[in-house]
Amino acid sequence: MNHPVKDFEDMLQYQCALAAGCDVVVTNNKKDFHEFCRLPFLTSEEFLLQLDYEG
User: Fold this and answer.
1) For 16-19, which contacts have Cβ atoms below 8 Å and span 24 or more sequence positions?
2) Prediction pTM value
């Protein structure tokens, strides 16, 4: 992992999502993910609303 990030745990979450083939990252800390995340990222509330809308 060679990324300049402020929060190591955010990068771990992102790398795990990539390794698992996830389509989205769910986090309540969206501000830090803008720096490096290439996947869509949603808060838990946004994710649940999206599930409800698609369901």
Assistant:
1) none
2) 0.74
